[in-house]
């Protein structure tokens, strides 16, 4: 689990379209979602991202939240992106889309966990606030980050820190290496017997 945490905290550098991307941050997730980028909004298999989604995503993620936000609001945004795209040269769209999707997936990672419920305690209700609002509130209120620092915090690191705090508070338990090994053994044995894991809601 330490390796997974370190990957979230200190992600490997990613270069796409001749740009070194910043670590995928909370702010990047907000900007892409706000502008309907299909790498983060909707069903990527049913409604694949367009070339414009790819350009916009890379353009946003190679900058800090503040710089990307300002660029998106600029009246010269379309011209800026068009000039930048011309400098990118030829590339394989499918390969690049897969690499950008992997960058987002790896940058959004969080640990496996299970919720804990104390004896006599009512089940936790589903929060009304969206996840990004909860995460920003946690980073600023609990970790005393500024809004700027919270928005530029790697998204995966923010997820890990939140889950670790919840574990320290006794609200959940992060899966250990032993837990994961046991689960893998169970799944392997089930596959050996021709069985499939059962999910809640399935008949």
Overview of this structure, please?
- Helices cover 54% and strands 6% of the residues.
- The chain folds into 2 domains: 11-107, no CATH class; 128-192, no CATH class.
- α3 crosses α6 (93-107).
- It is globular, with a radius of gyration of 20 Å.
- The chain has a two-stranded antiparallel sheet with strand order 1-2. A two-stranded antiparallel ribbon has the order 3-4.
- The longest helix has 16 residues, at 177-192.
- It has helices spanning 2-9, 26-34, 51-61, 65-73, 77-88, 93-107, 131-141, 147-151, 155-168, 177-192; strands at residues 14-16, 19-21, 113-115, 172-174.
- The protein has 203 residues and is mostly helical.
- The model is unreliable at 199-203 (pLDDT under 50).
- The chain has 10 helices and 4 strands; from the N terminus they run αββαααααβαααβα.
- β1 and β2 form a beta hairpin.
Keywords:
single chain; about 200 residues; mainly alpha; disordered C terminus; about 55% helix; two-stranded antiparallel ribbon; two-stranded antiparallel sheet
Rg computed from alpha carbons, rounded to a whole number of angstroms: 20 Å
Strand order of the largest sheet: 1-2
> How many domains?
2
What does the average pLDDT come to?
A: 87
- Name the helicity range: 40-55%
Number of strands: 4
Task: Set out the fold topology.
Layout: H1 2-9, E1 14-16, E2 19-21, H2 26-34, H3 51-61, H4 65-73, H5 77-88, H6 93-107, E3 113-115, H7 131-141, H8 147-151, H9 155-168, E4 172-174, H10 177-192
Antiparallel strand pairs: 1-2, 3-4
Helix pairs in contact: 3-6
Gist?
The chain is 54% helix and 6% strand. The protein has 203 residues and is mainly alpha-helical.
């Amino acid at each position: 689990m330490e390796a997974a945490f370190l990957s979230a905290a200190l992600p490997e550098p990613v270069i796409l379209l001749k740009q070194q991307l910043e670590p995928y941050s909370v702010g990047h997730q907000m900007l892409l979602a706000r502008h309907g980028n299909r790498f983060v909004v909707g069903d990527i298999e049913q409604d694949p991202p367009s070339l414009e989604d790819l350009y916009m995503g890379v353009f946003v993620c190679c900058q800090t939240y503040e710089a990307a936000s300002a660029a998106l609001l600029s009246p010269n945004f379309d011209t800026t992106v068009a000039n930048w795209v011309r400098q990118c040269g030829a590339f394989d769209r499918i390969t690049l889309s897969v690499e950008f999707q992997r960058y987002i997936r790896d940058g959004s990672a969080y640990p496996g966990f299970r919720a804990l419920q104390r004896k006599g305690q009512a089940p936790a209700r589903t929060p009304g606030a969206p996840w990004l609002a909860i995460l920003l509130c946690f980073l600023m209120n609990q970790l005393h980050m500024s809004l700027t620092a919270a928005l530029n915090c790697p998204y995966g690191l923010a997820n890990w820190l939140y889950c670790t705090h919840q574990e320290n508070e006794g609200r959940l338990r992060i899966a250990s290496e032993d837990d994961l090994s046991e689960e893998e053994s169970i799944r392997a044995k089930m596959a050996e017997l021709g069985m499939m894991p059962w999910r809640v809601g399935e008949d």
